[in-house]
Design goal:
Layout lengths: L14 E2 L6 E2 L20 H4 L10 H11 L12 H19 L5 H8 L10 H8 L4 H22 L1 H26 L9 H14 L4 E4 L3 E4 H17 L8 H20 L28
Antiparallel strand pairs: 1-2, 3-4
GO biological process, one term: signal peptide processing
GO cellular component, one term: membrane
Keywords: Hydrolase, Membrane, Metal-binding, Protease, Transmembrane, Transmembrane helix, Zinc, Zinc-finger
């Protein structure tokens, strides 16, 4: 039986919010009753609608805003889809990594795709290192976790905050790993989205610790157990000297950032659904026409 995303109450006939895509009981069906993320758009005439009756709205600014961020606008296509944008970038960057190995020197390759402790001020690597990966299975594992957890968190906090969380935590986790490397004497270039993805996982763990997941797609367990287990393995790997080429410090830093931000989101009355859902929910206009949440 479906449950209310806000209070967890089981309801036989749930209400689906067309602004954020959540499922709610009768008590929380109104956007203002469940802290709907879509409320952020309501103060923006261009982001939702322009009735034409408000003389205080500058026509040129409203038109430009509508074209960029409104429904059908350039940025409107990314609203609610940043998870999949990141997945696509990860795949494209990995392909470029593999193809460029045959034409670039090792020094140039590392300067483009890795966050290197020897050159921390190479600002482009703060971003490129997040989307780069050390191998196909590294990319596959990160992609699977982001595919399942990313859309849930993005729907709850909005695409703008989700983008800031992903990139910000990825950068912070990378520099945290460098700092830990200097302390432990294990300094090396690093790459991968694991720190950012652990932040997403941390947010979701706070919002819904009892979310049922399957380890390796087989073993069922609540999300909080998976999170604690992964944190324990990363801690042991970091302090036990068994890193094995894995940036355990970045994983822990990303997780801590996610847990802290998740607590902040939770204090605002937001929660996450009790089960994983694939793809976007259907809206009144059919597939692809449903709500996408705030950008």
């Amino acid at each position: 039986m479906p449950t209310c995303d806000n209070c967890g109450k089981q309801v036989s006939m749930p209400y689906r919010c067309r602004h954020c895509g959540g499922t709610y009981c009768g008590d929380h069906r109104l956007p203002e009753s469940h802290n709907c993320s879509g409320l952020e758009d309501w103060d923006s005439p261009g982001g939702v609608f322009d009735s034409g009756f408000d003389d205080s709205v500058n026509e040129s600014e409203s038109t430009l805003q509508t074209r960029l961020a409104g429904t059908g606008g350039l940025l409107g296509y990314f609203r609610g889809n940043m998870t999949f944008v990141f997945l696509a970038i990860m795949a494209v960057v990995f392909l470029i990594q593999e193809l460029s190995k045959t034409v670039l020197t090792a020094q140039l390759w590392y300067a483009l795709f890795t966050l290197n402790p020897a050159h921390p001020l190479y600002a482009w690597t703060w971003i490129t290192s997040i989307f780069s990966h050390g191998g196909f299975f590294h990319l596959l594992f990160n992609g699977i976790v982001l595919f399942f957890f990313g859309p849930i968190v993005e729907r709850k906090i909005g695409s703008t905050k989700f983008t800031a969380l992903f990139l910000g935590s990825g950068i912070a986790a990378g520099f945290a790993q460098i700092a830990i490397g200097y302390l432990t004497g294990d300094v090396a270039p690093l790459l991968g989205a694991s720190g950012a993805i652990m932040a997403v996982m941390g947010v979701l763990t706070v919002l819904n610790p009892d979310l049922q997941v399957r380890l390796y797609g087989v073993i069922p367990m609540p999300l909080w157990v998976l999170t604690i287990g992964y944190a324990a393995l990363s801690t042991l790997g970091m302090i036990g000297g068994a890193a094995g080429g894995i940036a355990h410090g970045a994983h822990l830093a990303g997780l801590l950032i996610g847990l802290a931000y998740g607590q902040r989101v939770k204090s605002q009355g937001m929660s996450a659904p009790g089960q994983l859902q694939l793809g976007r929910r259907r809206g009144p206009g059919g597939p692809g026409r449903g709500p996408r949440g705030p950008f």
